[in-house]
Request: fold
Amino acid sequence: MKWKLELKNLQNRVIHCKKCPRLVSYLKEVSEHKPRRYRDWDYWSKPLPSFGDLEARVLIIGLAPAAQGGNRTGRMFTGDRSGEWLFNALYQFGFANQPNSLRRDDGFKLDDVYITATTRCAPPKNKPLPIEIENCRPYFLKELDLLKNVEVFLPLGQIAFTQTLKSLRLKGYDVPPLSFGHGRLYTISEKKGLRPISLVTTYHPSQQNTQTGKLTRPMFHQVFEMVRKKLKVRS
Reply:
């Protein structure tokens, strides 16, 4: 289908993007100063493409790749602790074919889920600048046009939540002021011919949250239970 080819071409443009000089420089620095445990790796060190089921009904929006995770392996959430939590939950709820992924060529596949991010390059201290988020936004807005089956949005953490709301407003959705918190469900009504969507919120499965107990596995799994309940039965 034409839209699938467009989506593939979009990800190729992402990979070759150099809009943000600070991030281009940082990725080069990371690849030149690898920690000892990864010294044999050939780092990806480019913007990361989105990935998953092109006909997905669930869209997961991360914040940004980890310098020693996705930036190393070449696939979002692959090879880092946040990914261990995310992929395990996806597997538990039937959205993935295996409980973890350490390399982008290890056979890991998503079913009914597509994963994207607010920022496609690993930023210093995991904190993208506002201008870097804006530079990446057109890629996300185009994905919203092409991923026509998405019913449920799952932004990971407050920044992804805030930026998802902003992008939906730019696409014409009438999004009221919504507050962030874990395990909340919002329904955004159809307007101007746009499909109605659901928004499920969660704390980000970062080590800062999981190691302190701010986010526990039962809490994280609760979110995917909510997602499953919102999905219609696939025909």
Observations:
- Residues 2-230 form a domain with the Uracil-DNA Glycosylase, subunit E fold (CATH 3.40.470.10).
- The chain has eight helices and six strands.
- The radius of gyration is 17 Å.
- The chain has a mean pLDDT of 95.
